[in-house]
Write a structure and sequence with these properties.
The structure is a single chain. The protein has 550 residues and is mainly beta. It has three helices and 44 strands. The strands form twelve sheets. Strands 11, 12, 14, 15 and 16 form a five-stranded antiparallel sheet that branches. Strands 26-35-33-29-30 form a five-stranded mixed sheet, with no helix packed on it. Strands 37, 38, 40, 41 and 42 form a five-stranded antiparallel sheet that branches. A hairpin with a 2-residue loop joins strand 18 and strand 19. It is elongated and about 95 Å long. The N and C termini lie far apart (103 Å).
């Protein structure tokens, strides 16, 4: 009897244990963050006397092979792209051509290999082999930055050309490089399996997949001195370079656009500042046409403003040496079909020179218009308020430029008075028949307690001009100073905010940043940033004691 009870209790315990066990949810363990690993290579990595047509790389887990034709790079480059396929856990590479004798080849897989389930990247895995008795093991590394913005440039091919005499700098325009790699998201690159030798370093944003520089819109970067690799048994790495990428500027003047863009507005756009370009009309135009020719600040765009509905058409002749010889008759009737989807408002666009409702010391209050203003008609409701005193129509504006696109307030402004200006709509009217919406401005003249100054001593390189630029927190250039000798530079009357200083090493002394030109072996001009950001407070000066030397 006792034995039966014991067995019954044991049976009941097993049932309860089984039920409790079924209530537990199994866990999957920690997330896999380990990239795939090569467990076998045929032939082995860094083999010599390679004479086969197939390479196999087997991994410890299932993988994906993404965009192999773009991500996997052979160095030296192959004439025909090999077949690269995935079979279970093995990457199989089949070569289509006979390899060069006594040459070290490297295969960089870039971002091509990831594990199947978690997507862990096996980044920049390099496999190398030699067709001779010696495996070259030297390498160089570096990064490529945009010459103008200094941001990393991704997906640039970086190549080495073997020194062959005076024609070396012509090689990137004629053939692919002898050794090849590619930049990553940070603009970094590395070249492995290099022999001892002297090389030209050249980078290219290849637009037509031929691996050499033959299109004017291809971005390039290069070192203007040659690189010599030498054996360093400790690191096997020669040096770390920075290349600055640019797209060459086509210096040929060209008319890019000629167009009636709105009623009463013709626009002519040129590739470069058009100081030597003639834009004229042989037609006799009446005074009521009121043609005003306005150049942009950079002198590469010309606007012809005129009164609409005076002439039906107009002939314009554009001439520049032998480069431009254009004669066009324009219809001056801007059709309604052209206006669809456009802002057809007749309001003048107006800006001013106030900064945070402050008028800088010694400045006049100026209104800037989007088109020439030819008349002012005051209304009784326009007011001019100084502190608590209000005057009606006691404002005088006068033309401040040759075109009528800027008008200054001629009414005297005191330093210690707060002003409020209300201008009703339809006071200013333009050549094209447009008028202003109602305007309201509140301002006072800035005092020393509202603004600040920045002072720094700059020491440029010997016999070199430097362009110092001060930019604000939005990246806009606030002020510029050009110097060619050691000098104390002052940036005055600045609003309180954070500023940065940069310097263009102005080799061609044209007062601006100049692009590079590979064909003439000109590098882009160097832009140097000052080490610190400058946080200017109201009523304070920043006086930098240490000279800025280059």
């Amino acid at each position: 009897m006792f034995g039966k009870i014991k067995y019954a209790m044991l049976f009941l315990g097993l049932i309860l244990f089984t039920r409790c066990a079924n209530m537990v949810t199994p866990t999957g363990g920690p997330k896999d963050i380990t990239p795939p690993r090569v467990t076998e290579a045929k032939p082995a990595n860094q083999s010599i006397r390679f004479d086969g047509k197939k390479i196999e790389l087997t991994f410890d887990e299932f993988i994906t092979l993404e965009n192999a034709s773009q991500n996997v790079l052979f160095s030296p480059p192959l004439k025909g792209k090999p077949d690269i396929k995935l079979s279970n856990k093995t990457v199989v590479i089949k070569l289509k051509e006979t390899l060069a004798a006594n040459t070290t080849y490297t295969i960089n897989f870039g971002n091509a290999i990831k594990d199947l389930h978690e997507g862990n990247l096996f980044k920049d895995y390099t496999y190398s082999f030699s067709t001779g008795d010696v495996l070259d093991t030297l390498s160089i590394a570096g990064k490529v930055l945009d010459a103008e913005t200094k941001k990393p440039v991704e997906d640039l091919f970086v190549g080495l050309y073997t020194h062959d005499g005076d024609s070396l700098f012509a090689q990137p325009t004629q053939r692919p490089p002898d050794h090849l790699t590619k930049t990553d998201k940070e603009g970094r690159f590395s070249l492995h399996g290099l022999p001892e030798g002297t090389f030209l370093v050249f980078a290219l944003k290849d637009m037509n997949s031929n691996l050499y520089y033959d299109m004017p819109n291809e971005m390039v970067a290069f070192l203007d001195t040659l690189v010599t690799t030498v054996t360093d048994t400790a690191s096997k790495t020669f040096s770390d370079f920075t290349l600055y990428a640019f797209t060459e500027t086509d210096t040929t003047q060209m008319l890019l656009e000629k167009k009636l863009v709105e009623d009463g507005l013709l626009r002519f756009v040129f590739r470069h500042p058009a100081y030597n370009v003639s834009v004229e009309t042989p037609d006799a135009v009446p005074d009521t046409f009121q043609l005003a020719k306005v150049w942009s600040a950079t002198h590469d765009t010309l606007w012809w403003h005129f009164t609409p509905n005076v002439l039906d058409s107009l002939r314009v002749i554009i001439h520049c040496d032998t480069l431009i010889n254009d004669s066009t008759r324009y219809s001056l009737r801007y059709r309604e079909t052209q206006q669809r989807g456009r802002n057809t408002s007749k309001s003048l666009k107006i800006s001013n020179n106030l900064k945070n409702n402050l008028l800088m010391p010694n400045d006049e209050f100026v209104l800037k218009f989007s088109e020439p203003v030819i008349g002012i008609q005051w209304h009784d409701t326009s007011t001019f308020k100084a502190n608590d005193s209000i005057w009606y129509n006691d404002m005088a504006f006068e033309q401040a430029d040759e075109y009528g696109m800027a008008y200054r307030l001629a009414t005297p402004i005191a330093d210690t008075v707060s002003y409020s200006i209300n201008i009703t709509d339809s006071v200013f009217y333009s050549i094209r028949g447009h008028t202003n919406d109602s305007l309201h401005y509140t301002f006072k003249r800035a005092t020393e307690s509202d603004i600040g100054n920045i002072f720094i001593t700059v020491v440029p390189p010997a016999n070199t001009q430097v362009v110092i630029q001060l930019t604000n927190s939005r990246g806009a250039v606030v002020d510029t100073c050009i110097i060619d000798h050691e000098r104390r530079v002052a940036f005055r009357r600045l609003l309180p905010e954070k500023y940065k200083l940069s310097a263009i090493i102005d080799e061609d002394r044209d007062g601006k940043w100049s692009n590079g030109n590979f064909h003439r072996r000109f590098l882009p001009e160097v832009v140097v940033d000052y080490k610190d950001e400058l946080d200017l407070k109201a009523g304070w000066d920043i006086d930098l004691e240490d000279a800025w030397e280059f």
